[in-house]
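Chapter summary example: a protein plus arginine.
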Amino acid sequence: MHADPQDVLYARFKAAIAAAFPDAPDADPMIAESRSAEHGDYQCNAAMPLAKRIKSNPREVAKLLVSKVDLSDIAEPLTEASIAGPGFINIRLRPEALATMLGAMDAPGLGVAPAAPALRVVVDLMGVNLSKQMHVGHLRSPVIGDAIARTLERLGHSVIRQNHVGDWGLPIAMVTARLQRLAAMGKINLDRLTLDDLDRAYRDAQAECQRDSAGLAAAQRFGLGPKALAELEEQVAGATEAFLSARETLIRLQQKEPATFAIWQRIADVTMKVCLDTCRRLHVNVTSEHSAGESSYADELTPMVAELQARGIAEPDQGALVVRLDDPAYGSIKEPCLVRKTDGGYLYATTDIAAVRRRVQKFHADRVIYVIDARQNLHLRQVFGASQRAGYAINPVTKAPALLEHAAFGSVLGEDGKPFKTRSGESVKLADLIQETVDRSRAAVMSRSPELSGDEAAAIAEGVGITALKYADLCNDRQRDYVFSFDRMLAFEGNTGPYLLYALVRIRSIFRKAAERGVDDAWMSTTLSIVEPAEKSLALRLLKYPSTLGQVATHLEPHRLCQYLYDLAGAFSVFFDRCPVLQAEPAVREARLRLCDLTARVLADGLAVLGLPAPERM
Ligand code: ARG
């Protein structure tokens, strides 16, 4: 079984603390990576807090720990000289021990132990709205959500992806009503609709339904001429008519009246085709089977709200119904969660409460992760609080509360530090953004490898471009905003997708060269050996792969894996500079080839876990 040196040291020092300090057996061993290799590989920082706690001298505490801890099989002997400053204990691992640990990791699973217990996790990773064009704001949830989902799957959890499509309610009824009217007048052909047509219809429908009633009030107040007033009144009258027609349409949709429903279906088909095609192109594992739109909850809302009201969880408030959440058990949220409006309509939050109920009660989720824009935090806290209050978040199998988490992310900014827009100030279509990345990637690939045929260059450029775009999004701390830059994401140097792909391709090419030179595959069964400092650094980095995946899963932070892979590629490149592989004598060559192979497999696995396509050649 694979062992992470940090875990081994943790356990050994834990035992030493329990033996040496029976009064503080629970003290944290505080094992950390050393800042610089001169001091060692790891250090134990437990002596200082421990001394404070038992009112003793930290160096004395460190001395006692050093005498008690048993590291003979993995580290160089600890002596008083291992204690630095106020009581840091420096630990240097033995190369043979590293080679043994690495050998254990060198298995198909790369040392990643299957999660115990394996959980059922729902990941809410997309929520496009029908009839609206996808723009840059729709990049982050699927990219980050899919990376989180893949990490959890890699660790052996069972993941259910959910695309919470915004496909219901008055806004979509407004578009449906408008299209129905336009179709009846012969002004549009429903069979030839594009998402751009729908996007326009959406905006027109919105405008039509809320013509300038505020303007009219102002005009009356400030006294406009009768002609202008009459014009405004006409607009507002039209708006009322459009609004009423949208409400009637919503009722017909709820009753699945065939002619109206057919138009809604058409809108859904056109929007979802673009959405799912985009996911496929982005190598995001979201398909039609993951769609669980708001419409799929529509019939559940009336009985659910009635139940909430009967149980006293939803209370009347000025004609509406709200769930109060000021109790600390529900998040101490002062804004109550509105679940039914005065006009009897339900809200975004009502549907999301029904979604928690389905996800936990029906899918038996232990954990539900919402990969959604940080600006929706209050909404989600209200939904979580109300679901907890209703008891919907208790897993019926384990009887334990499901963990409801908001994996919030920041915005994508332009180079000017403002929300990313086109020059004319419109939001950038996601499809255009992807295409431009791939076009630029193609130019970069062709200038680096002019010998490639057009088809080859196009295929490689697609993978490199998609990886560059996704990696630029994933490598930032997700909570933070980041500045979108084609040049930066497509650079072959620095912490970028292309740099990692290139590192992987370079390692693979060593094996191609080896084959050309007639080197056999004896390396596959050779024993690993770690001698040079660069080999040791690489080994230490490799051994951290399983724990890095664990951290990504705990914190829902894929950027930790990006940083890991970047460091790994860096450690490999130092190794490759300092330690000849194919030129070395056979025994050394074989051990180094095995190290190269393990590095390539970890890199490839990590890229796959992040959902980044890696070409064979570049
Ligand atoms: N359609 C929503 C929006 O555009 C996003 C949905 C996110 N998922 C959820 N369960 N609320 O804001």
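Key point: The longest strand covers residues 333-340.
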